[in-house]
Design a protein that fits this description.
single chain, 196 residues, mainly alpha, 10 helices
Length: 196
């Protein structure tokens, strides 16, 4: 796995992993573009009555989006990308990006404190075996610069890193700051791919 290679090579990624990351970014960008094209065709706000009704209740929709983003950040398997793309297409992008970041950070805070207060026994029951093993592996002796680099790698699940930060000795403010940076560039990447 990538995190093993990252740890063994003093955080200098071998060419194989650089190609994996670049490939992931390209494929992810193509996927976002395809989803955006489908949404534009079938959910055009000017033509779709359901979308028009949705836009009449924009504050309620943004509140629902905040709750959904928060829950999806705690329960890692819940996908946010389709909802992100849909809302970035039909609503004010600045509002969507702000709410997405707020929901992601709220969920990351919950994840951090669950891990900090209840530790590994809870996470073993809470997360899948694969996700728990990932967190367990990277959290041992996790220094601040390791956390920062791993969280910034686009193929690593940002939300899982909040759990890793919680069972490490890192401070909450640092973990939340890195989470904010990682979530920001991910949602901005989605926005720019959709509007390229």
């Amino acid at each position: 796995m990538l995190h093993h290679a990252v740890r063994k090579h003093s955080y200098k990624l071998p060419p194989k992993h650089v190609v994996q990351i670049v490939g992931f970014i390209v494929l992810f960008g193509l996927f976002i573009a395809a989803v955006s094209a489908v949404i534009n065709k079938y959910f055009n706000p000017a033509d779709n009555l359901l979308v028009q009704e949705f836009l009449k209740h924009e504050r309620t929709a943004l509140l629902f989006y905040f709750v959904y983003s928060t829950v999806a950040s705690v329960f890692v398997p819940i996908p946010t990308l389709p909802v992100d793309v849909l809302l970035l297409n039909v609503m004010d992008p600045a509002s969507v990006i702000t709410v997405r970041l707020a929901g992601g950070l709220a969920g990351s805070s919950v994840s951090f404190y669950l891990a900090r207060n209840f530790g590994r026994p809870l996470l073993q029951r809470w997360l899948s075996k694969k996700n728990y093993n990932f967190i367990e592996d990277i959290s041992n002796n996790l220094a601040w610069h390791h956390f920062f680099i791993i969280t910034m790698i686009p193929i690593i699940n940002t939300e899982l890193m909040a759990y890793a930060g919680g069972i490490s000795k890192l401070r909450f403010r640092f973990v939340l700051g890195v989470q904010a940076l990682a979530l920001s560039y991910r949602i901005l990447f989605v926005f720019f791919v959709m509007h390229a």
